[in-house]
Amino acid sequence: MKRHIAFLAAAGGLLLGGPAAADGGRLMPAQVPPMYAQECGACHTPYAPGLLPARSWQRLMGGLGRHYGTEAALDAAATQQIERWLLAHAGTYKRVAEEPPQDRITRSAWFERKHRRVAAATWQLPSVKSAANCSACHAGAERGVFDDDALTLPAGLSAQQRRAWHD
């Protein structure tokens, strides 16, 4: 009987943990369309689709002519291909269920909570530039890896900021 219960518990763990384990805990799907990496990655980190809910991605893709002050329009086929992929992999879990103001990842409640102790001056450093530059501190950002234990200190931090980083 104990063996049967242990087997069921192990099988349940595999079923529930399988999707996360399959990608090694990454938010970025293993298969990223080259067009997404090329077109979106030309201007910014190609964000993991799981960082925003589907409605946010729909609005972003529908407004590429005015993408945060930049004209980023693509041809219809490219837009459709990228949008389909983003929607298929959009965030559905509790953390990203809400649509952040202006559909900005950096304005989402979870982002603000995770980065609440980052000094405003840090975002202004030449090595960081803005909160949207995930790669400045998260070396695995382009792969969708945001492990707190693998953060890198951005260049230009003062001694006080470096100490606070580890608190």
TrEMBL record:
InterPro entries: Dihaem_cytochrome-c, Multihaem_cyt_sf. Keywords: Signal. Residues 1-22 form the signal peptide. It comes from the Bacteria. It holds the Pfam family DHC. This is Cytochrome C. It comes from Rubrivivax rivuli.
